[in-house]
Amino acid sequence: MGGHSIETRHLTKQFGKFVALDALDLRIEGSKCVGFLGPNGAGKTTTLKMLTDMLFPSSGECFLDGISVQKDRKRALEACGVLIESPEIYPSLTPRQALEMVADLRNVPVAEQKIRIPAVLEEVKMSDWADKKVGKFSKGMKQRVNIAAALVHDPPILLLDEPATGLDPRGMAEVRDIVRGLKKRNRLVFMSSHILPEVTDVCDEVALINHGKLLFYDTLDNVTAKFSHGQISVDVNFVHPLSDADVAAKVASLPGIVRVEQLDPRRLRLYTPGGPEEEAKILRGLISAGLDVVSFQESKSALEEVYLSQISRGD
Amino acid sequence: MGATIPASGVSVPEGTTPALTSPASHIQVFRLARYQLRDYLLSRRFILMLGIVAVLGVILTSVIGYYRPASLLGTSDNFYNQIWAGAVTVVIVFAGVIFGGDAIAGEFQNKTGYFLMGLPVKRATVYSGKYVAAFVSSFVALVAFAAILLGNAAFYFGTGAFTVAFLESFLLAVVYLLALLGATFLFSSMFKTSTYAVLVVAVMFIFGFSIVQALVAGLIKIEPWFIISYASPVIGYPFDATIPAHMVTVTSMGPRGHTTSFTSYNPTYAEGVVIMLGYFLVTAILGLLLFEREEFT
Q: What is the predicted pLDDT for the residue at B12?
């Protein structure tokens, strides 16, 4: 495959005088997972809603597989699985009935529905609840059914708005597995998320918006290399308090450490060009210097560093 | 989960995608209506509607059976004119409130619209599918009410209860139902809060339109042809030997010689049908246009 695409051309949305999205030009193509990042109110959901014709652009246009969403929503959405804003399902329906409705409206043959519906319910771990009314479900359970609804016709494009919303940690991990599975099957996934480790874990590319403007769109590797200036920070906790002399003699002098910040007497933040080997070398150096290390871990992921630096610059 | 992806590869080889073509819109309308109907049947509102019909039926059957008023039981036409023609509009209004009041507004307030709008369906399809479901549900309630009255009539008049006039009146009631549901869907499209939508629909159809109709005819002295409730009396016309006069002016002499006149109007048969069909068409188009422009913010 590889021909599937999501595109916005000069996409703008104003609510009165407030510009929620400002001339967004974005073209995503191929088989990959793209994380759509930004703080609350940045314009992520607004973009996704315009991509699905739930909101109308003030100007500009959206295309799914080259078909204008604004001119032909029906044809444009045929290739898409959509999950926007944790929708509600008619409470009197069961997950099986709700998925039958989706499959019927998408023209999935009945014979195929009999295989696909139990399969997607199994995939989102809702098989045991397949014939219970949705109205009695928790938010997380409804979200699982919504994810199943987005997958039931095996779409080549997925538009997911914070798919892990309402899920417990296990559910979040399961969503990551689903997205990884979609990538393996060459699907194009465009996913907004606040959970940066999740994005780092499953996405190949990231787009960051703030105040309705696109700050960057690139591969994860390029973004972290470009914006983190090759530095990451590691938080280290010690058994005993460290004096200034200890810090200068035993820590700051270790090779690979660019800067040291003392967070409290027993805790340091070390800045290093990064990389697992460099970090392992620093840890060995600390222990060799006779320091009792309790914990040693990256304080923020590279993406988080980039995210925070870019968002604070925009503010 | 994750390692195996059972939903995929069911019929699609790795790395390819299935043919994804949604059905024609008219097919989607009926599929959507089918699921909406299922939702009505499984939810309490359908039972509530049938309950209202049953209560009305029990009251009418008991009162008529107990008092047996001669004026009512003279002929089947009399019976239908006074019982069916009066009560059926109440049943239709209740059906409109129950099935149409929050039909569109509820999609916004309950966020079920986000589930539907992610699918490859036109907004007109969603609107039409919901309308068809509301119409079928209301029609079932109407048939249930008609069956109760036919049962009563059969008890008093035997086979003479099954008249062409009743069939004609039933069809007129169906046209009124079409119009009233069209109007309730229009009101429902104006709001994003179900309560407001249901309240406005209930107030307008239970007494709002009647008050406006009386004011327009009595004070402004023009024919209220643009009020939907003005058309409803034609449902009883099949039972009338003579259709009521189109315009009736009553003049009365006051104590000091002042005369006051009061004019009331009755729709002609054709006028009533045209008003109902006109309401259906205009409100359906307006409601759809509103829904086409509503955003899921």
A: 42
Residue spans per domain, chain B: 25-210+269-292
Same domain, A242 and A254: yes
Domain limits at A158?
5-225
Residues A221 and A302 occupy one common structural domain: no
Q: Do B119 and A1 touch (CB under 8 A)?
A: no
pLDDT along chain A (315 residues), means of 10: 85 95 95 93 95 97 96 95 91 94 94 94 93 91 93 94 87 87 89 88 92 92 73 88 91 90 91 82 93 87 80 69
What CATH number does the domain containing A34 carry? 3.40.50.300
Q: Which of A225, A250, A271 is the last residue of a domain?
A: A225
All residues of chain B having their beta carbon less than 8 Å from the beta carbon of residue A176 are: 2
Chain-chain contact of B22 with A74 (C-beta, under 8 angstroms): yes
- Residues making up chain A, counted from first to last: 315
Domain boundary among A225, A251, A274: A225
In terms of phi and psi (left: phi > 0; alpha: psi -120 to 50; beta: otherwise), the region of A64 is beta
CB pairs under 8 A between A and B: 164
For A75, which residue in chain B has the nearest alpha carbon?
A: B120
- Half-sphere exposure (Cβ direction) of B194: Cα atoms closer than 13 Å: 14
Contact list in A for residue B22 (CB cut-off 8 A) is 74-75, 78, 105-107
B292 Cβ under 8 Å from any chain A Cβ: no
Angstrom distances, CA of residue B82 to CA of A159, A160, B5, B169:
59, 59, 65, 12
| Residue A232 and residue A179 in one domain | no
Distance CA(A254)–CA(A232), nearest Å, equals 16
